[in-house]
Design brief:
- 33% of the residues lie in helices and 23% in strands.
- The two termini are 39 Å apart.
- Helix 12 links the parallel strand 16 and strand 17.
- It binds 5'-O-[(S)-butoxy(hydroxy)phosphoryl]adenosine (WT7).
Amino acid sequence: MTATLTKPVAGPRTLEDLLLEKRKFAPSKKFKDSAHANSEVIYKEGANFVKFWKKRAHELTWSKKWKKTLEWKAPFAQWFVGGKLNVSVNCVDRHLTTWRKNKAAIIWEGEPGETRTFTYQQLSREVNRFANGLKSLGAVRGDRVVLYMPMVPELAIAMLACARIGAAHSVVFGGFSAEALRDRINDCQAKILVTADGGYRKGHVIPLKQWADEALQEAPGVKKVIVYKRLSQSNPAAWTEGRDIDWNDLVREQSDFCKAENMDSEDLLYILYTSGTTGKPKGIMHTTGGYLTGAYATTKYVFDIKDEDIHWCTADIGWVTGHSYVVYGPLANGATTLMYEGSPDWPAKDRFWAIIAKYKVTILYTAPTAIRTFMKWGDDLPAKHDMSSLRLLGSVGEPINPEAWMWYRKTIGKERCPIVDTWWQTETGAIMISPLPGVTATKPGSATRPLPGIQAEVVDENGKTVKVGAGYLIIKNPWPAMLRGIYGDQERYKAQYWSRFPGYYFTGDGAKRDKDGYLWLLGRVDDVLKVSGHRLSTMEIESALVDNSKVAEAAVIGKHDDIKENAVFAFVTLKEDVSAAGGNRQAVIDELKAHVVKKIGSIARPDEILFTAELPKTRSGKIMRRLLRDVAEGRALGDTTTLADPNVVKSLKEKYEHLES
Ligand code: WT7
C-alpha cells in the first residue's frame, strides 16, 4: 500500500536550477501597512501550534465552547473537543446581524455571460429554503448527499444547506464520467443526488443530468434527484417521475427559516474523493470545527482578505480548492466571492482579464497551468483590460516555474501585487506552505515557509531531517483542517499517510529546503499525476485501460509537459488475437482513449498511447515506470540492470523514437 518512491526531481526543475535562483521580493510598505499580518511575530506565535490554532478558532461563532483544544491519538486527531457550531451559521447567519447583511456574498458569471449576485441576506434565504427542501425529502443529520453540479451559485447553496441540516456533502466534479459518479455515490451510500440539467463549457452543453441518469442505473441507493434547471427550455432533460424533483418546485413553498443543527466540532462536514496510488479513489473526510478554522484563518492571512475585496478563486468547486477558497473560507470571513462557470478561452482568450476588469477583482487565485497557458497566448490580451484593481495574486495545484512566476508578477500584477504560491492538498483541507503577503519575502518558484502553526519538514529516506537539500515533504504535528481519514477505510488512511515515516504525515511530495529555510516543491514522488492541476492516479487510468477487452496490460506514466505539468502517457500491451489481427492502429488508440473518458472522465484522456509487445519488468515482475519515463521524455535509459530482460525497454525506446521522427 505504501507509495513507491522515486527520486524527488520533477522534469526540468532540477535542484541545480533552483539553487541558482537569487531573486527575492520583500513586501511593499504599502501592502505591509494594511495587512492582517505584518511582522515575524505571527511565526513566533505559531511555534505553540495548539495555542495558535485555539486563538484562530475563537474567531468563529460557537454555540458551545470546546473543553480541550487537541486530542491526539496518532494518527487520529480531534480538534476543539466538545465544541458545538454550525458551518452555515458561520458562513451566513453571523453576518446578518452586521452591516454585511446587504453585502454581496456571491457574485456569479455564467459562461454565456449572465450575471447574478446574492447578498448575505439573499444567500441566507436560499440556503434555508433549500435546507428545508432537503428535509422534506427525508434528509436527516448524518446522511450523505452527493452534489454533481456546474459552477452555479446553487452548488454553494446546496453545500451550505447540507451543512445546516448536518448532512455531509460529497461534491463530484462535473467533468467526471457517469461511472466515476456511480462509484462515488455507492461508496458514500448517498440517498439524495443534487444535479442540474447541464452547464456550459467552451460554448458546449455539459449534459450532467444525462450522465447522472446513467450513473443511477447502478446506484439503487439514491431515491431522490433534485435537478436545478440551468439550461434554456430548448434543452429538456429526461425525467423520472417520483424520483426527480425540479429545484424550483422543491423550494417554492419552503419557509425562509430552517433551524441550524448544533453540530459537534468533530462531526463530518464533507467527503471529497481524490486519487491515490491505487485504482480506487479515496473519500477524504473533513470535519466541522477544525476544517472551518483552517479554511477561515488561511483565507484571512494568506489572501489578507478584507471587506472591500472581490476574491476570485478560479478553481471549480468540485475540487478542494473550490471548497475552501470559493465557498467556506471567503464566506466565513464575510467576504465577497466571485464564481465563474466556464472556460478561460470562451468566447475569447481574454475572458479572465475581462472578468477582472468588469467586477474589479482584487484577489486572483489560479493554477500554474493556467498561468503558463496565458503566457503562451501573449501579453496583448491582458494589456487590453484595466486590471488595476488587483492587489494580490495566488497560485496553487502544481509547482510554478520561476519564468511563469515572473510573468505573473510583471504582466498581471504589474510588480505591485505580492504573489502567494500556496502548497496544500485535498487531505490538508487548507493551505499549509505559503508566504504571508505582508511578512514573507518571496522567491520566484518557492512556496517559501510553512504557515504559522504548521510544522512541515524535508526528510531523507530514513526520516532524518534535511536542513539544506532535497528529500520528502512531511508534516510533524496535527493541524485543525487535516483529514480525519478515508471514508470506510481507516486502515488505508494509516498505511497511506502514516507508515512511510512513522509518526509523521507523509505528503507524497518531494521538496528541497534552501539555506534560508525556504521550501521548493518538486512534484509527486509516488504514482499520482497532476494533469493541468487535476489529480489522477496512474493505477486508476491503467485499470480503465485493462477494462477494455482488447488490452492485456497497461502502464501509465506522467510525461513532463511544459504547460500541463504532466501529460498522460500509456504503454499498452494488446491481447494476442488483437495484435495479431493487425488492423488500424489509430482506431484502437481512439477506442482506448474513449474508453478511459467513459470510465473516468475527459480529464484522464491519455495524450499518447504506445503499443508494446512487452513492458519492462524487474525479475520479480514489477513494471519499471522510471524507465518508461525515460522513454517518453527521450532521455538516455537509466539503470537497467535489475530488469528481467533489458532488451524490452531498449527496443521500446527505439520504437518510440522511430514514431516520433
Ligand atoms: C498535490 C495535491 C489543494 C491544492 C490543489 C490540489 C501539488 C499543490 C502546490 C504548490 C507545488 C503543489 C502537490 C500536492 N501541489 N499545490 N503550490 N506547489 N505543488 O490539491 O488535487 O489534492 O493535489 O498538488 O503535488 O501533493 P490536490
